[in-house]
Amino acid sequence: MHEVDFHWNILIVIYLFTAGISAGAFVISGLATYLGGAKYKRISRIGALIAPWPLVFGLSMLMFDLTKPLQFWWLFLTVQWTSPMSIGSWLLTFFSILSSLYFLLWIPRPWRDLLRVPYRWADVFSPRRWQPMTREVVGISRRVLAAVGFPIGLGVGMYTGILLGAIPSRPLWNTPMIAQLFLFSAMSSGVATVLLIAAATPPAKEGHDHMHHERHFLVTVDAVLIVLEIFIVIPFFLHQALNTWSSAESVNLVLGGPFTLPFWGGVILLGLLLPLAIEGFELYPVVWKEAAVKYSRLWGGASAVMVLVGGFLLRYVFVYAGQVSHFLPLLER
Amino acid sequence: MTDTKNLPPAEDSTLNPSLSRRQFMGLGLGTAAGAALLGKYTLLQSADGQKTAGKRGHYPPTSFDREVYTMCEMCVWRCGVKAKVKDNVVYKLDGNPFHPHSRGMLCPRGQAGVATLYDPDRLKYPLIRKGARGEGKWVRASWEEALDYVASRMLEIKDTYGPEAMVFSTTHNLIQTQFENLLKAYGSPNYGTQRSLCFNAMITSNLLTYGMEEPGREYSQVKYIILTGRNLLDAISNSETQDLVAALSRGAKLVVLDQRFTKTAAKADMWLPVKPGTDLAFYLAMLNVIITEGRYNERFVEENTVGFEELKATVQQYTPEWAASKCEIPAETIRQIAREFAAEAPHVFAHPGWRTSNFTNSFQTSRAVAILNAIVGNWEQPGGFFAAAGEGGGLELGSVPQPPYPRVSALRLDGVPWKYPLVPLKLGVFQEIRDNILSGEPYQAHGWFIYRQNPVNSLPERRKTMEALSKLDFIVTTDISMNDTAWFSDVVLPEASYLERYDPLHVMGNTLFLRQPVVEPLFESKPGLWIFKELGTRLGLADFFQYEDEEDYIRQQIAPLDISLEELKTRGYYTAPTEAGSAGAGEQKFTFNTPSGKIELASEVLRNSGFNAVPQWEIPTLNQQDEFYLLSGKVAQHTQFATHNNRLLHERQPGNPLWINPEPAAQRKLKDGDMAWVESAGGKVKTPVHVTERIRPDSVFMVPGFGHTSKGLTTAYGAGVSDSDLHVTFTDPISGSQALSQTCVKIYKADES
Amino acid sequence: MANPAKESNTPPKKRWGFVMEPERCIDCEACMVACSVENQVPLGEHRNWISHKEMGIFPDLNITFMPENCHHCSNPPCERVCPTGATYRRDDGIVLVDYDKCIGCKYCMMACPYDARYVNEEKQAVDKCTFCVHRLDAGLPPACVETCVGGARHFGDLNDPYSEVSKLLATHDYYQLYEEAGTGPAIYYIRGK
Q1: B10-117, which class in CATH?
Q2: Ranges of H-type helices in B187-297
Q3: What is the pLDDT of residues C86-110, one digit of tens each?
Q4: Among candidates B212, B232, B174, which has minimal Cα distance to B354?
């Protein structure tokens, strides 16, 4: 193995992973809001309530990784159009603001009513006259924020991949497909988090039927994302292996090198194939027997955890193996 | 004993690397120097570096308070140095462009000089041993106390056992003349230098052949070079290394004989991994081919050499085929090299070398090399040999007045000349002194004055050296840091480093060079010239040290010359006007400082002492089936035993894993980086191995100088292992040279950790 | 519109660069030590280095030594990815770090194909070879060039056809490292015999 100091360490892995969860949770929440309305309300709410937090955690990790943590604000004194990190910082800022507002809108009553807004221009400077939001205002606001945040959420998911992909000198990273791979993995991780929390917090009142709809929706979305991921991973590795020598050598790190086990065992088997099998098992009655989705909190929770572990390992493998991958020195040719 | 009541406790007075900032201030050093020495990461930090937030504040200075021209002492090549000083801190050393040895460049060791000056392990004040030897407990003493004590012990030994019971030793350095002055005035014949551990064989052979220690080499027009025992690109001698690279770049052919694929071998046109100890066979065959095929320079041989017929008769038997069976170089290759070498003559030379693989037959190898050069007539030819500057003649310096030395009647402990009749008196046989301290024959030594030297690491068979030290009543060591020998001494005197002191002038032909202080000595360290005078005075030898101070000494040296010390200090050198050359152009008659006045192909001196007058084959020790030859050699980043505590150099070369060929390594299931035991008749060490194709399968190699045992060297302590633990003492009866490669070792895998 | 006649009167911009002769490099590392001292590089880090490649089996061997440092690219990936604009390129081609602007995200270290950068804990910023810009501005060559014992390192203005480096390039076959990365490096290596 080429000797490397890993200048980007586990903190960066955590950051990329948690940013993905946030983006995924926001996007699935928005999707549920538009596609299901009341039917998927619980999904929308869980997604919205989760969305800001992993990112906040991840950003604090990122700050600790800086040599000068207290000078992170230098990032916001400039826009460097050619630097994915600069663009990403701004994107994350907008996303943080949007997802926080969105979070506020989804706080259940009566706590939400503590939040008051002015209803007339004249009241803007007189907070005492502000009122709690009406159901209509909340509904419209949620849909507006979901619509605006949806592309930004996708952007954040994609950004975690582009951050790595924009670097020509790391052959493992430098491929157009890494953005999609990270995007779908981010979405999948977000959905899995929602799935996990949904499984852990069964509603007391609502009926079985409702749960099945919810379950059906989440599992379907996740299964589609996993399939998409698989269809990216396969051409990704084929492409890399058939590309320049440096590229081919870089995927060797993953296919038959120090990162083989976390990749094949962790990312592929645990993170993609096993959850897909479980989800297939759950969806099988719906597709073939027009029956309800099979529902088990245990299986549902297990597949969600597997997806999350796989998603984390994907970022771990790419961040670390990518730093090992390098242009082959002239002398090795 | 000194009064220790008023001194700080022993713990406090040991070499404490974490000297506080306040202590620094107390010593009168500026903040910059304090920061410089204490910086966690850097050696130096510009005084305003952190304060000025502006961009330029992050860049080092380009203007300095002064630039001082002085001389390097990171090895013995003596390059010119330009030291750049700001706020009394030495920031950077550049090569002096006006000095012929540096020409504006310094090697890594020279560049790293600041880290020797600002080594946190520098000795700060005189120390007197408190606990047992080697225990590391010291009491801080004033110079007054320390010198009084040393003088009293030395006088005690002189009065009780005679001056010969005191051994003196030092390493090649500019102040050697004054050190010799001290020991001769004291009256001891026992003087150890490093030379028998280095190149006695080469020097003795050249003295007996050319009447000079080491002929110079002219590279500007050389067309063909053979290097044996001279790894010029690893063992850098700045200007000569520059010359070799330039010659190669110009297209000169290079043949390298070495058991290792050294960096020099990597640049050679032909690398001959000769069997250890058999270089002599190669050279005898070279002589055979050149003489039998009539390719030598007949006119030169006739006019300038003696003993050719005897040589011719002797080398008849040494055909290339015969040599091939000894040295494992194909006969055709030897023939080819001999013919090419002769064809390019006289713009050729076979380098005298420092040491070959160094067996007891190395003297004869060096003789054969000297003779090969002589018969192709490269003497004083462009691209050939010449009488190097300093080999007689040159600038006449003034001398400090002194009375004649006392007569010495005692035998020398190093066996010269009673056991080693041909070893020059000034070279000596250092390892023999150690052996005779141990044996007590022909008389028992009682004291040892060690100046800037480290015999614990440098002499073979460290075990014996330690035993010898334990037999002595009194040991005093002078150095800039706590070397391994100092660690076992009774008194340690801190010397000023080469950037803080004057040394006697260095003369090269018509030019002299000055070593002068760049900054004031740190702590209480003192220059050698001061130490010798003060000690000499206390020994009742003040008449031998008739100079006020160092500057006065230099002034007396330059008195006959047309230059003042102040002028000399600004330039660092002085060239005397030359008189018109005496030798007419085209004249081919030379005189040599030998009994015959000619180059002695056959030496009557050798014959009369019972040795072969012309080189003959001598079988070297052969290794047993499962044994390896233990080879020694240099790296560009370290000098002998002295630089391993330099943090910049330690960083570049932190250890000395044992080189071993993959084939024997595989037999022993050793992978690169595995730990192995290396065992000889002298001892055994455990070391990581470096598995490499770059060495013969029958040899292993270890860089010397590592394996420091002094805890006063915090960087070097525990780094690598010492080959002095392995080397067995084998002395060449002619030259007194220690046969460094004659030790054979067994290797076996060790458990980890 | 620019006036071509007027432009031709202005002297061409400088483009500082290295020409290395690996054949003359003896791997003594004087360049590394000189650089450490000159630039006060923290112990354990370095701004220039020599890569080796050993080839062959005993006794048919070959070693090449390649002196290297920051390539001061024409299209520096480090500059492109820097989120704060701390890494910048001077008119004469020298790529520098504004140590105050650098927040230490290490993105540039990821982006550099030559691994030329390190974190300088003292400056709290990412650091690298500056071509000894402080010396250049004072009219001196970089410290590594000045002390190169083998004479393997040559430095000068690549845009000046009469400079030593330009003459070397005009008369020798040469190559560069990782040109395929589109970096436009300013270090040229003379091909061996």
Answers
A1: mainly beta
A2: 200-209, 238-250, 263-266, 279-292
A3: 999 999 999 999 999 999 999 999 9
A4: B232
In a domain, C186, yes or no: yes
pTM for this structure?
0.91
For chain B, say whether C172 makes contact (Cβ under 8 Å): no
A29, A113, A142, A201, A214 from A37: Cα distances, Å: 10, 21, 11, 20, 11
Pull the structure tokens for residue B615.
């080189």
pLDDT in tens, B241-272: 999 999 999 999 999 999 999 999 999 999 99
B345-403 pLDDT, tens digit per residue, is 999 999 999 876 688 899 999 999 999 999 999 999 999 999 876 655 678 899 899 99
Highest-scoring range by mean pLDDT, A204-213, A309-318, B422-431: A309-318
- Per DSSP, the residues of B654-714 read ---PEEE-HHHHHHTT--TT-EEEEE-SS-EEEEEEEE-TTB-TTEEE--TT--B--TT-T
| CATH 2.40.40.20 boundaries in chain B | 628-749
Q: In chain B, which residues fall in CATH 2.20.25.90?
A: 10-117
Alpha-carbon gap: B136 to the closest alpha carbon of chain C (Å) = 28
B619: how many CB neighbours lie within 10 A of its CB? 12
Write the CB contacts of A158 (distance below 8 Å, at least 6 apart in sequence): A179, A180, A182, A183
Give the B:C interface size as CB pairs under 8 Å.
Answer: 157
Yes or no, beta carbons of B263 and C150 under 8 Å apart: no
**Any domain includes C122:** yes
What is the CATH topology of the domain spanning B209-380+590-608? Dimethylsulfoxide Reductase; domain 2 (3.40.228)
CA quadruple C171, C177, C179, C184: dihedral sign: negative
pLDDT at B460 over 70: yes
Task: Sort out which chain C residues have CB atoms less than 8 A from B39's CB and list them.
Answer: 122
Domain ranges of chain A: 10-119+129-332
Chains A and B touch (3+ CB pairs under 8 A): no
**Long-range pairs of A72-79 with CB within 8 A, sequence gap ≥ 24:** A72/C103, A74/C84, A74/C86, A74/C101, A74/C103, A75/C83, A75/C84, A75/C103, A77/C84, A78/C83, A78/C84, A78/C85
Q: Which amino acid is present at B188? A: S
DSSP B28: T
Sort out which chain C residues have CB atoms less than 8 A from A74's CB and list them.
84, 86, 101, 103
Order of strands across the sheet that contains B511-513 = B506-508, B511-513, B573-575
Instruction: Please name the residue that has the structure tokens 């010390």.
Output: B565
Find the residue in A nearest to C82 (Cα).
Answer: A83
CB within 8 Å of chain C, chain B residues 71-100? 91-95
Residues of chain B with CATH 3.40.228.10: 209-380+590-608
Structure tokens at A99: 């997802």
CATH number for the domain whose boundaries are B149-198+415-512+528-575: 3.40.50.740
* CATH assignment at residue C76: 3.30.70.20
C80/A83 touch (CB, cutoff 8 Å), yes or no: yes
Closest CA to C113 of B394, A195, A174, B360: A174
Looking at the domain assignment, is residue C1 inside a domain? no
A interface mutation test: which of C110, C120, C180, C188 has the most A CBs within 10 A? C110
CATH topology of domain A10-119+129-332: Formate dehydrogenase/DMSO reductase fold (1.20.1630)
Reported ipTM: the value is 0.93
Architecture of the domain delimited by B628-749: Beta Barrel (2.40)
Could you tell me if residue C3 is inside a domain? Answer: no
How far is residue C31's CA from residue C46's CA, in Å, rounded to a whole number?
Answer: 10
Mean pLDDT throughout B606-634? 90
In chain C, where does DSSP find H-type helix? 4-9, 30-38, 77-81, 107-111, 133-137, 143-147, 164-171
